[in-house]
Structures are given as C-alpha cells and as structure tokens.
Amino acid sequence: MQTVTIAGQHVPAIGMGSWNMGDDPLKENDEINAIHAGLDAGAKVIDTAEMYGSGNAETLVGKAIKNIARDQVYLISKVLPSNASKAKMEQSLDASLKRLGVDEVDLYLYHWRGGVPLSETVDELQRLTQAGKTKAWGISNFDIDDLKELWQLPNGSKAAANEDLYNLSSRGVEYSLLGWQKAHDLPFIAYSPVGAPDSLDSHLDEDKTIQTVAKRHQASIYQILLAWVIRQPQILAIPQSSNAKHAADNIHAGDISLTKDDLALLDKAFPAPTKKLPLDVL
User: I need a labelling partner for 35 at 20 to 30 A (CA). Which of 20, 76, 77, 215 fits?
Assistant: First the structure.
C-alpha cells in the first residue's frame, strides 16, 4: 500500500474513521473488533473528534487501543470551533487525551471554521504542538480561500494536513483545492470516501459502472471507491466501519491499482468538475 507523509510521519494511505461509533453499548465489542481488524490488516491511522458522540467515539477508540503499542497507531482528533480559542482549546485537548488514554495525539485538527479569529486558533494550535500535547496540527473543512487566508498568518504554513469530504460522487475539491495543496505540500485527508448521506451521494453501492470495475479486480464496490480516492499521492482516506471483515477489506483496498481504462470508465460516469463548486461538508 502507498503511504502518505504527514509532518514527517509515514502512514498507510487508508486509515479508519470513527464517526457514529461509541454511542451504543451493545455495539461496543463489534466496534472495538472492527478497529482491531483494521489495524491487523495494516492500518495505522484512526481519525476521531471531540464532536463525535460528544466524546463517545474518543472513549471507544481509547478502549480499542488500550493494549496496543502507541507507535503502532496514528491518532487524529479535532477541536470544535466553540473550543478553538486560547481560553478553551487546551482544556478541550486535555479532555480528548484523557478519553483516548494517551499523552499526545499525532495530529490535532481545527474541525471547521467558527467565530474565533483564525489567527488566535492557529497560534494556540501551534503552542499546544510546541507543548508536546500533539505532534502536529491541521485543519478540516477548509476550502481554497480559507487555506490562502491561513497561509498569510505567521504560523499558518505549519499546518500539516487538511481534511475535507471527497469521494467519487463529490469531486469538487479536484477543480483547484487539490492542486493548491499539492503545490504547497499540504496532505489531503478524505472523509466519507465511500459516499456520504443520500443528500450528497448517488447510491454509489448500486452503481453499475463501479460494479463493472469491481468485477475486473475481484473486489468490492467499497474497495474500488477507496482505491479511486487514493489514486493520487498524499491523499489519506479514512472510511468508517463497525464490521471487522468490512474494516479489514477497506484496508486491503490499498493493494488495488486501478488501470487507465478503469479510471476512464469511472470519469465518464462521474465527471470531474469543470468549474469551482461550493465545498461539500457534513
């Protein structure tokens, strides 16, 4: 599997998300088993956030990695806009670290833009990195104009990654954002890489074109969707699954190389954007 380099750390290009995990005690064992299966299959990244279940996802992830060597897991968490101030961020991060059961996260993201001045948020993210509570910081749900504004700040270019929605039916970031990030050596993290809720996607799991490509590779539709997302360098996909076999299959998608014919077929069914589109967010 190809790797993505974030702030000097090399991680496999497919990791795991944790949105909607940790909320149901009856599902806890299955969710923990799914995380273990993903790690056993070769994943390293686990993406979570204080927002997910108001901390429940971080608690679930903490339970799952309790007996796993810290250097075997790359942890990403996120701070809510309401907590992204000099007065609140450290307390917020400390709470996340406690739920996760670790002393630091590998990457701490500003979840989306809120009312706190961007310069204040960035300076506090940088301070917490220097304090050793996170190895690196980044942003999420930032569009190209947000990144350009960020880069004008004294510490702005120290951002280590940007996480946005990206999948075959949501390709708006390809028009200008991905190119800008490549030019500025800013890795891209794709959330909802196998599709978003019905309001945004086109029922990708039912699409005949994707089914055709999947048959060519003796793979699942979800594996093809993931292989498509990471077809370019420096893109990390973080699919979520609470099923152990599905979680492992997701990671193995990193071993699939789509051909030019595959990509042409998918491009015809899901055309790339021809103009700037509003950033898709969840």
Answer: 215
